Amino acid sequence: MTYRVCFVCTGNICRSPMAESVFRARVAEAGLDDLVEVDSAGTGGWHEGDGADPRTVSVLEEHGYDGAHTARQFRSSWFSRLDLVIALDAGHLKTLRLLAPTPEDAAKVRLLRSYDPAAGDDLDVPDPYYGGLDGFEECIEMVEAASEGLLAEVRERTKGQVA
């Protein structure tokens, strides 16, 4: 049985594709790529069909991750096939929980930085879109830090499963 994780930000061209790429690499490094499916989407459809922001691609590739991506909009109907929906900030969390068709689906939505014990109370990954490259570097640092805790949870949830 495949365990499915979807990362969600606003337009699916900066934060969520970065989180998708980093987490997919962590899943592969852990040998779980046959058990875990990782993707991403945006709360809005403004960039649907576009590639990731060139700054996202640059930072991902500079850090050794895959920069290939096509943006898409999150659909409420996806909840039934997803195990975890990872929001990149509190606004996304609220939007996704409102989109959830059932309370069980709403419970699948979590903030990415909630998996980083060092994050404290500041659980938003800031949107780097309107800033410079340093915002994208900060974003990947936050994503990498939270990915370890998220991987530990996914590893626990998939323990004993066979692809």
C-alpha Rg, in Å?
A: 15 Å
- Rounded mean pLDDT score: 97
Termini distance?
A: 6 Å
Portion in helices? 25-40%
In short:
The protein has 163 residues and is an alpha/beta fold. It has helices at residues 15-29, 54-62, 90-99, 103-106, 133-158; strands spanning 3-9, 36-42, 84-87, 109-111.
Describe the structure.
The chain is α/β, with parallel strands linked by helices and 163 residues long. It has 5 helices and 4 strands, in the order E-H-E-H-E-H-H-E-H. The chain has helices at residues 15-29, 54-62, 90-99, 103-106, 133-158; strands at residues 3-9, 36-42, 84-87, 109-111. A 4-stranded parallel β-sheet has the order 2-1-3-4. Helix 2 (54-62) crosses helix 5 (133-158). It starts with a strand and ends in a 5-residue tail after the last helix. The relative contact order is 0.22. The model has no long low-confidence stretch (mean pLDDT 97).
Give short descriptive properties of this protein.
about 160 residues, alpha/beta, four-stranded parallel sheet, 5 helices, about 15% strand, globular
Topology:
Layout: E1 3-9, H1 15-29, E2 36-42, H2 54-62, E3 84-87, H3 90-99, H4 103-106, E4 109-111, H5 133-158
Parallel strand pairs: 1-2, 1-3, 3-4
Helix pairs in contact: 1-5, 2-5
